[in-house]
Amino acid sequence: MATKKFKCTVCGYIHEGKAAPETCPVCAAPASAFVEIEDAKKKGMLSDKNGNAYIIMYSTVMVVIVATLLAVAALSLQKRQYANELNEKKSSILSSLSAQGQNYDTFIDAYVVDARGEKVEGQDVFELLKDLPGAFDDGKFPVFEAKDGRVVIPVTGTGLWGPVWGYVALEKDMDTMAGIIMAPSMKWMPFRAVRRLRTA
Questions:
Q1: Which of 134, 146, 147, 150 falls 20 to 30 Å from 99 in CA-CA distance?
Q2: Beta strands 177-183 and 163-170: pairing type?
Q3: What is the pLDDT of residue 41?
Q4: Which helix (H) or strand (E) holds 165?
Q5: Are 6 and 15 in contact (CB under 8 A)?
Q6: DSSP secondary-structure letter at 30?
Q7: Contacts for 121-124 with beta carbons within 8 Å, 24 or more apart?
């Protein structure tokens, strides 16, 4: 029979043997005062909550659970995020025209033109906005034409702290700026400010 360890709950004396002693040799406590000490090896690696194995396993499980929840949340909210981005772009286009009160779908006609100014069929304008520099390199230029004849052109470039993009609205003569909005700051420059910049 394997040797066991028993600890006296009165004085802390540890006895090794097949069973607890009848009395503690230190404090004379009865056998009922002894409790068996379980061997940590028998418990397994994860029995010690302060051990490295338990901490590593706990951290791994938590990381997997959190990553799974984030992935599920991202996939479930993907359509809503795209809808919000689309609405933001439509709102920016209307803002560049000072036409925030208009309905985008009825007020704006969106299409794509090539380098010669001819319309390119079968192109999703908003898909091209996701990679505007790439669209320009491919000779595809998104155009947003308002019902009153004004035109909005998306622009992009390099700013002080990174890429910047926005929308420039032109009057019917295609030579006078009607407004401009830059994102993500979304600070709209009114028509008068733009005209002063143009005539300076």
A1: 134
A2: antiparallel
A3: 53
A4: strand 163-170
A5: yes
A6: B
A7: none
Angstrom CA distances, 81 to 20, 77, 94, stand at: 68, 6, 20
Using CA atoms, how far apart are residues 182 and 164, in angstroms rounded to an integer? Answer: 7
Give residue-wise pLDDT tens across range 132-177: 888 888 889 999 999 989 999 998 887 777 778 889 999 988 888 8
Q: Which residues are paired to 112 by β-bridges?
A: 120, 142
Residue type, 26: V
The answer, as to whether pTM is greater than 0.85, is: no
pLDDT in tens, 93-137: 998 898 888 899 899 999 998 888 888 888 888 888 888 888 888
DSSP 34: E
In 75-161, the DSSP E strands lie at 108-113, 119-120, 141-146, 151-158
